[in-house]
Amino acid sequence: MRLLCLSNGHGEDAIALRILQALQQTAPRGHDLSALPIVGEGQAYRRSDIPLIGATKPLPSGGFLYMDGRQLARDLQGGLIDLTRTQLGNIKAWAQQGGVILAVGDIVPLLFAWWSGAPYAFVGTAKSEYHLRDEQGNLQRPSWLGQLESSLGSAYLPWERWLMAHPRCKAVFPRDTLTAAALEKYAIPAFDLGNPMMDGLEPTGMRFEVPGSPLTIALLPGSRVPEAYENWQLILQAAAAIQAEGGYPDLLFLAAIAPSLDLVSLQQALAQTGWQQIATSPYGMFRQTRVLQTGLPQATLILTTAFSDCLHQAEIAIAMAGTATEQFVGLGKPAILLPGKGPQFTPKFAEAQARLLGISVSLVSSPAAVAAEMRSLLQDPLRLQKIAENGHRRLGKPGAANRIADCLKQIFSAEETQKAMS
């Protein structure tokens, strides 16, 4: 099978790569696989053996134009039009030689796949029926725009459904069961195979050990530069508010840091807010401590790139990230959302993510409000049980990438056989 994967974002690239690697594992030499990251430089692909077919370029918005329209002007100045024209030419040239396209993300790669003229499949990562409703019915949407969205019958707009119902679209893989059931009503070939976002999160066995039995809190500032550094400042304010409130024996903050972030910049922010480096940790990062006054809990903060181990060990998260927040929730754990300035994690994005993830997340308005919300969560075991069940239901079980890869092979192999016979 000759397949080109289109994806538009850091998280989308990672999801796409898991599916491509699953295809490689089942038939290492039986597939001709390549990719084109529409947004960014496609670092996930570059760290693998998946070749890129065309031009890539980071743009100021990081692909989050829909979160802040002001980013459009910056992207236009940064060469968005020329980049899009070049990418469309690369895709068209590739499709003319035969093959199929896998679009991963939102309407942009889906539209590019349709425009190519090739058969295509779509992994929808950005939208879910949970944005509009849950198993009990429609969510309350006070704004007129929210009410309009709910009245359209699906989280996917009519033109998106048209692209998914097109004869050349052979398969659609929604992110959850609720969305798959909704798309089936529109004669869309939707397959409910789970969310690849939950794949590859197995812990490596690393444990972040500190004296005592501390409450362990994950800090998720996101991966986009420079936004993540501004998020980090807000998260540190929230961490200080938790410590100042008291009532905990000790605190362990595990900061899950993307490789794209500069460790020195993060450490400088720690020093400016009263954290002191006490030792180099065995985890390859740095351990810091901050003691406010006698009687308040000691807090240890560890910066680490051991992402999956961080998510598994933490009991609760302070989150300003997209994919990482959803993965944490998918493990059955609660997260407190703290809106930032964007371009990704704006109040609008945080509100949409709160609808997407339901009771598993709490949306607060300021760093100071995090402490009280955390206290309320941890003192409510029934709520925590419901959060665990909700997270597993909305994000699904691991193994989706393998299931999607198997489905793609069956669908497109059958189509190749049919073409050969005709």
If you had to describe this structure to a student in words, what would you say it looks like?
This protein has 16 helices and 15 strands. The chain is an alpha/beta fold. The chain has 2 domains: 2-199 and 398-421, Glycogen Phosphorylase B (Rossmann fold), CATH 3.40.50; 215-395, Glycogen Phosphorylase B (Rossmann fold), CATH 3.40.50.2000. The chain has an 8-stranded mixed β-sheet with strand order 10-11-12-9-8-13-14-15, with helices on both faces.
- What count of helical segments does DSSP give? 16
Q: How much helicity do the residues have?
A: 40-55%
CATH topology of the largest domain: Rossmann fold
- Label the CATH architecture of the largest domain: 3-Layer(aba) Sandwich
Q: What's the shape?
A: globular
Concise account of the structure shown:
It is built from 16 helices and 15 strands. With 422 residues, the chain is of the alpha/beta class.
What key phrases describe this protein's structure?
Rossmann fold, alpha/beta, 2 domains, 5-stranded parallel β-sheet, 422 residues, 15 strands, 8-stranded mixed β-sheet
Write the layout of secondary structure elements.
Blueprint: E1 2-7, H1 10-26, E2 32-37, H2 43-46, H3 70-77, H4 80-95, E3 100-105, H5 107-116, E4 120-124, E5 133-134, E6 137-138, H6 144-151, H7 158-165, E7 169-173, H8 177-184, E8 215-220, H9 227-245, E9 250-256, H10 263-272, E10 276-280, E11 286-290, E12 298-304, H11 307-313, E13 316-319, H12 323-330, E14 335-337, H13 347-357, E15 361-363, H14 370-378, H15 381-395, H16 400-421
Parallel strand pairs: 1-2, 1-3, 3-4, 4-7, 8-9, 8-13, 9-12, 13-14, 14-15
Antiparallel strand pairs: 5-6, 10-11, 11-12
Helix pairs in contact: 1-16, 4-5, 9-10, 9-14, 12-15
